[in-house]
Every structure is written in C-alpha cells, then in structure tokens.
Amino acid sequence: MATNYKFKKVKAGRDHIADNFHNALSLSDMAKHAHISPYHFLRVFRDTYGETPNEFLIRLRVTHAKKLLITENHSVSEICEHVGYSSLGSFSSLFLKQTGMAPTLYRRKLWALSAEPFCFPSQAIPACYAYHFLGK
C-alpha cells in the first residue's frame, strides 16, 4: 500500500490520464505528472489501484467509446479517433476484449433495445435488463 505522499503523486498521474485519455499518452508522460520515475509509477499505480496505468487508460477509452457508440451517430472510425486511438484495428481489438463484442455489434444491439435512435436504452428499459441482454 502506498503511503499518503506516494498516493498523492500517483493520484496526480491518474487524474492526468483521466483528463487526457483522448490524447496519445505514454508511461513517461503519466509518470512525469506524478513526479516519479516511469517504472516506480507503474508499480505504485498497480499496487494502489489494482490495474496498470495502461489498463486504466484502455478502460476509460472503451467506456467513453461505449457511450459514444450509443448516443452519437458517428462512424466507428470517428469514435476510435475521438477516444484516442489512431488504429481502428487496435481499437476494435481492445473493445472486443473489454466488452466481448465488436463496436458495430455493440451499437446494433443497444440501438435495437431503444425505441428512439441515438438514445441510450437505459432511458427506455432498466439497465439490469440491458446488462443481462449483453451478458454482463
């Protein structure tokens, strides 16, 4: 467990990731905002939050992409770029790994649950039903 001093530094790095997830971020960039070395930042971050900074970054990007896929009519490529990926293949692969389905399929299934286009289905049906439908 990190001491309070280390926790504040790691939290500064985590906040930087959360504020800039749509930009290209390297471990050095993240550690620079925490004012500690990259490998020490990696170790303390994993010990503190139970995931690596990169896993946290991917989780943020996929979560934001899920929201955009449901609420916006942008193409998957546009959403890919909007959440910080330059490669559609990398984005689709990570999205599939995180959610269990491709971005396009995710969008189709959620839109099918909604009565209105570009509307998050939780407005029309309970979230527990949507999660059950998606196998979550």
Automatic annotation (TrEMBL):
Position of the signal peptide: none
Organism: Pseudoalteromonas rubra
Protein name: Transcriptional regulator
PANTHER family reported for this sequence: ARAC-FAMILY TRANSCRIPTIONAL REGULATOR, HTH-TYPE TRANSCRIPTIONAL ACTIVATOR RHAS
MF annotations from Gene Ontology: DNA-binding transcription factor activity; sequence-specific DNA binding
SUPFAM superfamilies: Homeodomain-like (SSF46689)
Keyword vocabulary terms for this entry: DNA-binding, Transcription, Transcription regulation
Lineage, highest ranks first: Bacteria, Pseudomonadati, Pseudomonadota, Gammaproteobacteria, Alteromonadales
Domain HTH araC/xylS-type positions: 11-109
